[in-house]
Amino acid sequence: MPFAYYARLPAARKRIYERSDAIERIELPDAAALQALVAPLEAALKAEQRTEAERLCVSLATGIVSRLETAPIRVQVLAVRPSSDWGELHGLYLPEDAGKTALIKLWMRTAKNKRVVAFRSFLRTLLHELCHHLDYEFFMLEETFHTEGFYKRESSLFHQLVPKAHVQADGEADM
User: What sign for the dihedral angle of Cα 86, 95, 20, 173?
Assistant: First the structure.
């Protein structure tokens, strides 16, 4: 079932949306090797070590794109989320432009209370922004849409990277 905005799209964009929606999983070769980065990333975030969290996010993103043999990506972890009357910005994907490598920006603190965000939310934001990159560079979609397939791809990456025992011990509901 397409999201409501689908009805307003022109036919060419609907075809892209439908292609995106049909892709429900990203098979990540040797995902187990990247699982070793998950616990240190969680620890760095909880210890409020922005530089270490950024280093680990870079390693994780680089590991994913290299395993998928797709274009490189840069990652920046910044402090407090930007906000306005529309809410808070959790992450931002900036595609490759004029020869500059694509960039993911993540914020590790909430705008209102300046608290470090929950680990799973932070990791899912990284994977969400990475899925935008993969839409362009791996799936060769002309546009990246938030479709049900998009969210399933994000979830598939999460479940390949986060060991089942960690998910169960965490107790947070899956998104």
Answer: negative
Computed on alpha carbons and rounded to an integer, the radius of gyration of the chain in Å comes to: 16
| Mean of pLDDT over the chain | 92
Instruction: Encode pLDDT of 5-43 as tens digits.
Output: 999 999 999 999 999 999 999 999 999 999 999 999 999
Tokens of residue 72, six digits:
């490189």
Beta bridge partners, 120, equal none
Alpha carbon distance 19, 21 (integer Å) = 5
Q: 119-137 and 50-67 are packed helices; what angle lies between their axes, rounded to 10 degrees?
A: 40
Q: What percent of the chain has pLDDT over 90?
A: 78
Quote the tokens at residue 86. 């529309």
As given in the structure block, the two tokens for residue 60 are 């994780």
Q: What is the 3-state secondary structure (H, E, C) of the chain?
A: CCCHHHHHCCHHHHHHHHHHHHCCCCCCCCHHHHHCCHHHHHHHHHCCCHHHHHHHHHHHHHHHHHHCCCCCEEEEEEEECCEECCEECCEEEECCECCECEEEEEEEECCCCCCECCHHHHHHHHHHHHHHHHHHHCCCCCCCCCCHHHHHHHHHHHHHHCCHHHHHHHCCCCC
pTM: 0.91
